[in-house]
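Two quick folds needed for the group meeting slides. Do the first one here.
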Amino acid sequence: MICYDRLWKTLIDKHMKKMDLKEQTGISNATLAKLGKNQPVNMEVIERICIKLECNIEDVIEIKP
């Protein structure tokens, strides 16, 4: 199962809100909702998030059995 808990922790560490992430990366409300529900999103979205947050993919996503 895909889990974005690390993304939310990274946002907290960087003093950002979900809406800040949405605005700064250009992701849609639907994509933000998918992230909130731990649903798969396009890797391009993950890449944009990593670039904006200046972090690695492991700081955003993890796979849980």
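Then this one, please, same format:
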Amino acid sequence: MILPIVLLVLVIVIIRVNSGAASMTIRPVELTRETREVLDILEDEVIFLNYAVDETMQSRSVELWQCEDGCWRVLGSSSADLTSSRGEIALRISEKNCGVFDVDDGGHAGVSWDISDSHTKQEAWTGYRLSEPTDIQAGKEITLWAKYGYRDSESIGISTSNFRSATCDFGLAVTVKFWGEKVD
């Protein structure tokens, strides 16, 4: 009796996978051990994310947020039309700036923003980075990376993707939104 039910569920799953119904998601790229070791040598934090969208998504925007003394504000933003339904976003965060790079069938492009030196005054840090596949919806903000700094280690808060609710002395966050219309 249980075998027919299991087979029915398997058939439904197989049909759904093979139906071509594209799942609109963004997910971290699985890096090899060797690649991670090379990136560790560079001492910059680097994050690679793959995304897949359907024809309803026409553009995307990335924003760099900075928090000083509890107030979050946009430090920089970048928008671009999508040239493909699949692409990769790379984030490089160093001591002095944050770079965002887009890679898709049309090539690659990047933008970089300087970061306030207030982060050098922080004694303790906690952070968040996108670690699981996340559904993409038009206009929905997705936190890709966030880092929270505290003047003393006794003030450390929880690491959360909802960076605006984090209580920190200094913070940085990178978000992405996908849109149903073109930027240009």
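Slide caption for protein two: The longest helix spans residues 2-18.
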